[in-house]
Amino acid sequence: MRQKLHDSVSITPMENWMHYHSLDAFLQNGRATLSKGPIALIMVEDDVEVATTLRHHHQTGFKTVVAFMPPVFDLPKDLETVVHRVDYDVTAEGAVEHAINKIIAAARGQWIYYCFNAEYLFFPFCETRSVGEMLAFHTEERRDAMLTYVVDLYADDLASFPDAVSLDSAHLDRSGYYALARKDADNHNHPKERQLDFFGGLRWRFEEHVPETRRKIDRISLFRAKEGLTLNSDHTMSDEEYNTYACPWHHNLTAAICSFRTAKALKSNPGSKFDIQTFTWHNSAPFEWHSRQLLDLGLMEPGQWF
After folding, report:
1. Half-sphere exposure of 302 toward its Cβ, with a 13 Å CA cutoff?
2. How many CB atoms lie under 10 A from the CB of residue 214?
């Protein structure tokens, strides 16, 4: 898997893969591309592992991959033919939700996924099944969204990898994850039905460096666009049913986003950079880049999909 992420994508160039110089230009001139789902929206915050992120999601089976990224960043030649590039500053306040909500309105009925660079989607049996096959089953289960857990990855040697990013020596926490009831402020803070707030990983172990509103690791990263649906700033959706982890009858599929994003932030933020000498602890384990490990650790589940 790690080697595949570095390999060039072998595909015949297509004329309709384009570079758009703004979100408005993409929505005006590239709307036809949004008719081919599932759609992956990759939000590029910096120049770390951009190519491997795009390759991973292309290889996972997304029919359309859109990269929102600053114009100063380069893409390898092989990716220029398989990625729709949109010049966009995703670091501006509210920029991610704005772009995704615009895409939702333009791609009704399509399954949409979003993540950031240096993040990699894994789902049960993803080594032998495509994301399209997984979403087809999920749709048959009458589900329009899927809960994903953001599983922190980090390099084991920060002296060798000061930005905490290394595909070859990536580690994760094998324990320390927990869930709390999600309170409903509109109903006397009673727990919401089939909704939980999930915590763990680096945001839990180094919580003193993480704002309280950003400590959750759950994200509704896969969902089917429909009229009126919007993404909230806390990675939940405006439709409460989309935020549930399962239907009322049985457990459903969940997925994991294996992410260097938190580790990168902790090692680049002046308030935490010099306080953290290592991310490894007694519950660290090498990441195997395989869905079996995530299933065994309980970081995602297959539901009724066998």
Report:
1. 12
2. 13
